[in-house]
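Lay summary. Proteins are chains of building blocks that fold into shapes, and those shapes determine what they do. In this project we predict the shape from the chain. Here is one chain we studied, written as its sequence of building blocks.
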Amino acid sequence: MSQYVLSIDQGTTSSRAILFDAAGQIVSSGQKEHEQLFPKAGWVEHDPDEVWANVREVVGNALTSADVTHENVAAVGIANQRETAVVWDKTTGKAVYNAIVWQDTRTQKIVERLAKDGGLDRYKATVGLPLATYFAGPKVMWILENVEGAREKAEAGDLLMGTMDSWVVWNMTGGTNGGIHITDVTNASRTMLMDLKTLSWDESIAQDMGIPMSMLPEIRSSAEVYGEGRRGGMLPGVPIAGILGDQQAATFGQACFEVGMAKNTYGTGNFMLMNTGEEIVPSENGLLTTVCYKIGDRPAVYALEGSVAVTGSLVQWMRDNLGLIKDAPEIEKLAASVDDNGGAYFVPAFSGLFAPYWRSDARGALVGLTSYVTVGHIARAVLEATAFQTAEVLEAMRADSGVDLKELKVDGGMVANELLMQFQADLLDVDVVRPKVAETTALGAAYAAGIAVGFWSGEQDVIDNWAEDKRWSSQMKDDERARMMRNWKKAVTKTMDWVDDDVL
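And here is the predicted shape, written in a compact code that computers can read:
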């Protein structure tokens, strides 16, 4: 009897496996962090073998803690960190280089080279994205140009590429022994290589980037049976039936199925998506146009997205690099020890500025310091940075869509921080709503897989299962909101034009 759907959430800092029941409730889970590798300033890598080993381990942990086997699992859904690129040898099953993470900025020179003909918006009309270090295509380009022997192997048809969903599915379905090489439309839309209209790879862009078409995975919908777990694995014969990039998965899990509905995920970075329906809405205000989801053979649903590189990872940086806090939850208590930020603003442009600026030459800055500022004020500035960046994304979203949000659904690890959620509602002047099941990324992937195999009948089941946990409403006066946003935007200008030929 298949009573559950298993979701694998392969994230930036950890991999998780969560078992969900028919009501969309968590039955059991397993989680394990993987090492963050920083070979040089601006470089961020993961070991693909470590990630795959962790995925296997957390799946085993989730099944064991629920005292179930693969026979109790109706389907598997996969959510993954997007844009992180891995290239591997299909004959040996080994990656030719570490996975290059979405935050990595080493491809700046490649981006500049591609932008010489047509500027940063060279491919935007086709793929919905500006040229930026964020996306997967230039990362694969870097590997082919810098890893010895990679170009020759790629041209001989021996190498495969993909985002982390492709790596996980290939291994789950057999690897060198018949593993399937696929991705879904949401992940494909983050490579800079997929045409948003046709939902197929653009050969001319791949050629510009020197990426042989033989390396590219087959593009599939977000909810269909792709294959089955391999023999000898922990999920033999279980249908793998859902794939969504993590932010699209969270949008699905938050039941944002109507045009104009939006969610914001507070994780390593922040990602706000607004459903634009079957219409592709080009952004004039620094947002990305992306695929939101595609269910089977139904038309694709699109979204506008505002991506912020550093939010939760700034709290980790406070803990790990500066040692100002012992654990992440401690920052809320520290920030609450003061009434305001004391005039301090922290712009965490560690990987440049993402939406709505797209300035890879920016670097982080803490400004407005006086002798009055304490560690409490800095802690508050760290939390407020997340809310300020989100507010700027929402401004851009309003301008592009013409939609005034009535509320913003939120999820991710940082939504447990009530001081941050209240400040977010204050800055946005709209209600901020947290769901009862905060693990919406894993939940969305589970729903996609469950819908594909009939475990759930469709989107209405997702809507029916969604439940509100807490709501925050604005308590800030208009003039105070305007003053703080004005100071924040002034602080952002101080981070720009930092990187040049003399600065790593």
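What the prediction tells us: The two ends are 57 Å apart (CA to CA).
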